[in-house]
C-alpha cells in the first residue's frame, strides 16, 4: 500500500505519534489533516522524548511534512514549535515543511473567546484546552476566517482583521464582560511573523497529488480520536473538527480513492482527558495502577488521563466509521502486572443490552458496561520481539480484540521507544 491514514479509535492519546514516526520511515510525505495545537504527539527517539503539536511526527524521520487545509494553526505556536525542533537538531526548514495556503489561522480573539466561554459555563464547561480551536473552526464555517493565503496581501489581511474584530470585541465586552483587543496590535503582531511564515506557505493539495502521481508514498496523520469527532463522537464533549479517516481526503486536498489503507490505533485499555461520559472508567486501585504505570498525562495539557477497561463498543464503532483495514495495539505492557482483565462487549441501558454506540449523551451517561473477564499474564512483555514470545493469556487477549472488532492486528507496541514495536504485517 502506498497511501496510509492513521487515526485514533478511542478519545485520543492512543499513541498515534509513535506509530506515525515508525511508518514515516517507509513513507515519502507525511500530512496532518485536522485539528490544531490542542493535540500532542509524543515520540521517544534514542531515549529522548520529543513532543509535537502541529508539525507532523514524520519530521523526525527527515520526511517532507505538510499541514493540510483541514488544520487550524496558531502561527505563534507553530513558530515556537519549529524553534523547539530546531533546538533538538531536527530540520524544519521550508524545504521540509509546508502549510496549506487554505489552512485557517487561530487569532488572539479566538483564544480570548474560548477561555471566556469556559469561565462563563462554570461547572458545565466541556473541557476545552482554551487554545482557540473551536472559535477558529466556527469562523471558518461562517466564512469569517483568516487563511494563510491572506498573509500574502498585507492590506487585505489588515482590512479583514479590522472588520472581523469589530464584532469579536462587541462579543467579548458585552456578553463576556472582558477586555476588548486592539485590532492594530493584532495586525502588527501577525505582520511581524509574516516574513518567517511566507516560505512555508504553499498549495499543499497540488504538491500531494503531484507526488502521488509520481509514486510517492503518503502517510496521513490524524489528531485526537474517533470519539472526539464533531459529528460522530460524544457530542458536545468533542473536538471541533472531523477526526475520522474520511476527513483525511477533505482536510488535505486529495480524492478519497487515493486512501488505500486505514490504520486504527487503540490502547490495550481506554483513556480519556477532560469531561464527558466514559462508561468503562475505573475509580479503584486498578485504574490508579494503570494511570501510574501508563504515565497517563496529556502531552499538550499535562492533564491526568482518566483510565478504564478496553471498550469494544467504541472500537467497533471506530472500525465502522473509519473502514479500518488494520489495528495497532499500544501500551499492552501497561497491563503486564494485572491478575485479571476485563473487556467491555456491550452496554446495559434501561434493561436492554446495546452493542452499538448511542448518539444520546444522556443515554451514554447512564449506560452500564457489560464485561467479560480474562486472566492476566503477569509477566513482562516490554522486551519481547515477536508474537510467538508472548504469554498465552496475552495472545488470547489480543485474539479476542481481533474477533470482537473484526479487524486484524498489524502492529503491537510494548513501550514508548521505536524498538519496543512488533510489526506483524508489513504495510509497504
Topology:
Elements: E1 3-8, H1 16-24, E2 29-32, E3 41-45, E4 48-52, E5 64-67, E6 72-73, H2 75-87, E7 97-100, E8 104-105, H3 108-121, H4 133-141, H5 154-175, H6 183-197, E9 201-202, H7 204-213, E10 218-221, H8 246-250, E11 261-267, E12 270-272, H9 285-293, E13 306-308, E14 310-311, H10 312-322, E15 326-330, E16 340-349, E17 352-354, H11 361-365, E18 368-375, H12 392-405, E19 409-413, E20 421-423
Parallel strand pairs: 1-10, 1-11, 2-5, 2-10, 5-7, 6-8, 7-9, 11-15, 14-16, 15-19
Antiparallel strand pairs: 3-4, 12-13, 16-17, 16-18, 19-20
From the helix content, strand content and strand pairing, which structural class follows?
Answer: alpha/beta
Kindly report the name of the CATH homologous superfamily of the largest domain.
Adenylosuccinate Synthetase, subunit A, domain 1
Mean pLDDT: 93
Name the strands of the widest sheet in spatial order. Answer: 9-7-5-2-10-1-11-15-19-20
The low-pLDDT segments are: none
Say what the CATH topology of the largest domain is.
Adenylosuccinate Synthetase, Chain A, domain 1
Rounded to the nearest angstrom, the radius of gyration is 22 Å
Major beta-sheet overview: 10 strands, mixed
User: What general form does the structure show?
Assistant: globular
Alpha-carbon distance between the two ends: 5 Å
Number of strands: 20
Task: Give the number of domains.
Answer: 3
Task: Describe the model.
- It is a single chain.
- The mean pLDDT is 93.
- The protein has three domains: 3-100 and 201-261, Adenylosuccinate Synthetase, subunit A, domain 1 (Adenylosuccinate Synthetase, Chain A, domain 1, 3-Layer(aba) Sandwich); 104-197, Orthogonal Bundle (Adenylosuccinate Synthetase, subunit A, domain 2), CATH 1.10.300.10; 266-423, Adenylosuccinate Synthetase, subunit A, domain 3 (Adenylosuccinate Synthetase, Chain A, domain 3, Alpha-Beta Complex), CATH 3.90.170.
- The protein has 428 residues and is an alpha/beta fold.
- It is globular and about 65 Å long.
- The chain contains twelve helices and 20 strands.
- The chain has a ten-stranded mixed sheet, with helices on both faces.
Amino acid at each position: 500500500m502506498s497511501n496510509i491514514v492513521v487515526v485514533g479509535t478511542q478519545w485520543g492519546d492512543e499513541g498515534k505519534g509513535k506509530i506515525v514516526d515508525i511508518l514515516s520511515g517507509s513513507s515519502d510525505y507525511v500530512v496532518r489533516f485536522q485539528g490544531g495545537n490542542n493535540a500532542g504527539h509524543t515520540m521517544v527517539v534514542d531515549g529522548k522524548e520529543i513532543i509535537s503539536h502541529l508539525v507532523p511526527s514524520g519530521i523526525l524521520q527527515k520526511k517532507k511534512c505538510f499541514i493540510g487545509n483541514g488544520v487550524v494553526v496558531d502561527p505563534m505556536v507553530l513558530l515556537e514549535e519549529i524553534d523547539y525542533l530546531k533546538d533538538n537538531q531536527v530540520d524544519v526548514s521550508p524545504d521540509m515543511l509546508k502549510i496549506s495556503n487554505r489552512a485557517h489561522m487561530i487569532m488572539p480573539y479566538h483564544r480570548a473567546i474560548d477561555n471566556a466561554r469556559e469561565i462563563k459555563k462554570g461547572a458545565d464547561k466541556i473541557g476545552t484546552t482554551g487554545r482557540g480551536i473551536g472559535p477558529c473552526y466556527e469562523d471558518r464555517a461562517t466564512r469569517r476566517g483568516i487563511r494563510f493565503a491572506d498573509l500574502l496581501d498585507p492590506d487585505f489581511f489588515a482590512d479583514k482583521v479590522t472588520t472581523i474584530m469589530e464584532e469579536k470585541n462587541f462579543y467579548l465586552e458585552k456578553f463576556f464582560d472582558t477586555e476588548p483587543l486592539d485590532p492594530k496590535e493584532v495586525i502588527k503582531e501577525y505582520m511581524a511573523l509574516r516574513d518567517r511564515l511566507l516560505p512555508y506557505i504553499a498549495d499543499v493539495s497540488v504538491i500531494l497529488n503531484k507526488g502521488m502521481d509520481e509514486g510517492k508514498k503518503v502517510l496521513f496523520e490524524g489528531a485526537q480520536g474517533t470519539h472526539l469527532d464533531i459529528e460522530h463522537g460524544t457530542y458536545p464533549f468533542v473536538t471541533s473538527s472531523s477526526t475520522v479517516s474520511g476527513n483525511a481526503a477533505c482536510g488535505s486536498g486529495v480524492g478519497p480513492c487515493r486512501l488505500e489503507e486505514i490504520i486504527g490505533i487503540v490502547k490495550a485499555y481506554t483513556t480519556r482527558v477532560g469531561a464527558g461520559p466514559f462508561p468503562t472508567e475505573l475509580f479503584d486501585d486498578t485504574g490508579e495502577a494503570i494511570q501510574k504505570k501508563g504515565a497517563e498525562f496529556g502531552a499538550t495539557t499535562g492533564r491526568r488521563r482518566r483510565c478504564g477497561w478496553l471498550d469494544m463498543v467504541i472500537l467497533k464503532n471506530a472500525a465502522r466509521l473509519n473502514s479500518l483495514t488494520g489495528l495497532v495495539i499500544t501500551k499492552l505492557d501497561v497491563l503486564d502486572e494485572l491478575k485479571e482483565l476485563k473487556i467491555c462487549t456491550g452496554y446495559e441501558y434501561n434493561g436492554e443490552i446495546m452493542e452499538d454506540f448511542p448518539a444520546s449523551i444522556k443515554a451514554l451517561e447512564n449506560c452500564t458496561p457489560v464485561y467479560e473477564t480474562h486472566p492476566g499474564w503477569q509477566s513482562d512483555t516490554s522486551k519481547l520481539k515477536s508474537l510467538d514470545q508472548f504469554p498465552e493469556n496475552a495472545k488470547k487477549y489480543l485474539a479476542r480484540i481481533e474477533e470482537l472488532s473484526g479487524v486484524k492486528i498489524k502492529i503491537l507496541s510494548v513501550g514508548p521507544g521505536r524498538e519496543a514495536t512488533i510489526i506483524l504485517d508489513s504495510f509497504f
